[in-house]
Amino acid sequence: MDRRSFLTGMFGIAGAAALASAVRP
User: Could you tell me the pTM of the whole model?
Assistant: First the structure.
């Protein structure tokens, strides 16, 4: 697996979790 795609996936998951926690009161 490419390192760049792996980092992109990690940031994507982290961003989604942060967005969900921010939207959720």
Answer: 0.55
